[in-house]
UniProtKB/TrEMBL annotation:
<keyword id="KW-0963">Cytoplasm</keyword>
<keyword id="KW-0694">RNA-binding</keyword>
<dbReference type="GO" id="GO:0003723">
    <property type="term" value="F:RNA binding"/>
</dbReference>
<dbReference type="InterPro" id="IPR015946">
    <property type="entry name" value="KH_dom-like_a/b"/>
</dbReference>
<dbReference type="InterPro" id="IPR020627">
    <property type="entry name" value="KhpA"/>
</dbReference>
<dbReference type="InterPro" id="IPR009019">
    <property type="entry name" value="KH_sf_prok-type"/>
</dbReference>
<dbReference type="Pfam" id="PF13083">
    <property type="entry name" value="KH_KhpA-B"/>
</dbReference>
<protein>
    <submittedName>
        <fullName>Uncharacterized protein</fullName>
    </submittedName>
</protein>
Length: 80
């Protein structure tokens, strides 16, 4: 799941952007936290949250196939 999210974010931000993804797997639930700069966090969220909703939907599809739940958090205040 982390690899899929990393692929999506690299294509949104570009190859040179710095970000960090933390993955916590609690058996049936996966929590993914993206840590990046303020301006990059805005690009991930998008206008009215449309981009982050689309990313969550893609991750939800993969989670259903793996019979898990997924939570995606974007925390732009923490610098990697």
């Amino acid at each position: 799941m982390k690899e899929l999210l990393e692929f999506i974010i690299k294509n949104i931000l570009g190859k040179t952007a710095k970000f960090e993804i933390d993955e916590v797997d609690d058996g049936s639930m996966v929590t993914l936290t993206v840590k990046t700069k303020d301006e990059d966090g805005g690009m991930i969220i998008g206008k009215q949250g449309k981009i982050i909703k689309a990313i969550r939907n893609i991750l939800r599809i993969k989670a259903v196939l793996e019979k898990k739940k997924v939570i995606l958090l974007v925390n732009p205040q923490i610098q990697p």
